[in-house]
Amino acid sequence: MSDGLTSILVEVLTGALIDARHNARLAGRSLGLVDEDRVVRDAARMFFDDPQYAADSALELDLTKRAIDVVLGCGPLQVLLDDPDITDIHARGSRPVWVKHRDGRREQRAPLVDSDEELIELVRTLATRSRHGERRFDASSAECNLCLPDGSRLFAVMDVSVEPSLVVRKHQFQLATVEQLVSGGLMSMDVARFLRAAVLARRNIVVVGGTGSGKTTLLRALINEIPKHERIITIEDAYELGIDRFVDLHPDQEALQTRGANVEGRGAIDLASLTRMALRMDPDRVIVGEVRGAEAFPMVLAMSQGNNGSMCTLHADSTRSAFSKLAAYVSMADTGLPIDIVNVLIANAVHVVVHVEICDGVRRVSSVREVVDADGPRVVSNELFARVEETALEGDDRTEARAQFPMTTQLAHMLARHGYERALVWS
């Protein structure tokens, strides 16, 4: 009974929304999210005022929410998206859904759909609703990467997998400051003070780590330490950093996103192209959400020719391995440069590398490394902070990254001008 009533209500709300959008276009304006929500809620109230569809208040609220989730939200995904304790959602065909909680627990939930076709249709519906450009999802475009209305990232595949599947990564936009990350145990106050001073000193920073380790969360917090008068250009596959949510902190910012090819196979814009575009947009800082290919070369050039203070993330299992990973990505640009020249470029471009990982279900900064120089096939660096595995005294948390080795005099002087001082330096 309730499913049938929900279907009828969805049709009514959809019709009301279509009419409202049509009337708005005739009037030369467009409906915002608040306007659309008001339209469908008014239509729902009128629907239940009809004695034929009258229901008790609890059922009315439940049916209205379910219908609005379908019409304006993310359908069966919306319930999981609304749960603040869930960080990741994994769905495969009509099988039960796996969700990951903030404390690292995994739990199985009811299936989102009844068939593979329904899951494909759900992704297509979400892709067509994207306010940042429609994304295709079919046999010729077997992957779909998009940003959901709440800022979560959805990635889906079909045809190349046994069953269509989707993965949703929910972002914690409320964790937007370094102080909040310190309170949450991501890093010590000493590391936080160091990173804040490095941002203010316009040091180029690379944040590395594994999947789900907190790279984007840390990068977002570091971006929010940038002075508000500076112009920021962000480059992403799908909008995840969400700095437009902090317009009071970044009044002058532009967010760029990659674009897939159209049905004729034309019009694709990749990260490398966006990086070149960003350099023509008069940026004070260029932020690349995630480097994983040929875009590394123009980014490294940008960092080494005056755009200091730029940042990016990278998949790597340590601060040391970040250099070889970055060199491999630069080589994907077919530059023909020998490895020693590539390492010189990296050493001149990157100043600080930060590694984050998950330790016992808690995200933590495990290493901070200063880049010193290049020596042939390797980049010379100095690990300033590291997590030391040793027996701790009671109340002494050794899982935090702590100061290990001295920094160069040059870096020490730069950071001192922005409020961070440490006694140990070397020249």
- How much of the sequence is in beta strands? 15-25%
SSE string, helices as H and strands as E: HHHHEEEHEEEHHEHEEHEHEHHEEEEEHE
Report the CATH C-level class of the largest domain: Alpha Beta
* End-to-end gap: 77 Å
Oligomer: single chain
Give the uncertain stretches in residue-range form.
391-396
* The CATH fourth-level homologous superfamily of the largest domain: P-loop containing nucleotide triphosphate hydrolases
Helix content: 25-40%
* CATH second-level architecture of the largest domain: 3-Layer(aba) Sandwich
Give the helix/strand class: alpha/beta
- Let me know the number of strands: 17
Q: What strand line-up does the widest sheet have?
A: 9-8-10-11-7-12-13-14-15
Rounded Rg: 24 Å
How confident is the prediction overall: mean pLDDT? 84
Number of helices: 13
Tell me the CATH topology of the largest domain: Rossmann fold
Taken from the alpha-carbon principal axes, the silhouette is: elongated
- How many structural units, i.e. domains? 3
- Main sheet record: 9 strands, mixed
What would a concise description of this structure say?
With about 425 residues, the chain is an alpha/beta fold. About 35% of the residues lie in helices and about 25% in strands.
Description:
By secondary structure, the protein is α/β, with parallel strands linked by helices. It has three domains: 71 residues; 92 residues, Beta-Lactamase; 249 residues, P-loop containing nucleotide triphosphate hydrolases (Rossmann fold), CATH 3.40.50.300. Helix content is 35%, strand content 23%. The chain has 13 helices and 17 strands. The chain has a nine-stranded mixed sheet with strand order 9-8-10-11-7-12-13-14-15, with helices on both faces. Strands 3-2-1-6-5-4 form a six-stranded antiparallel sheet, covered by helices on one side. A hairpin with a 4-residue loop joins strand 1 and strand 2. Helix 1 packs across helix 2, helix 2 crosses helix 3 and helix 9 runs parallel beside helix 10. The protein is elongated and about 80 Å long. About 1% of the residues have low confidence.
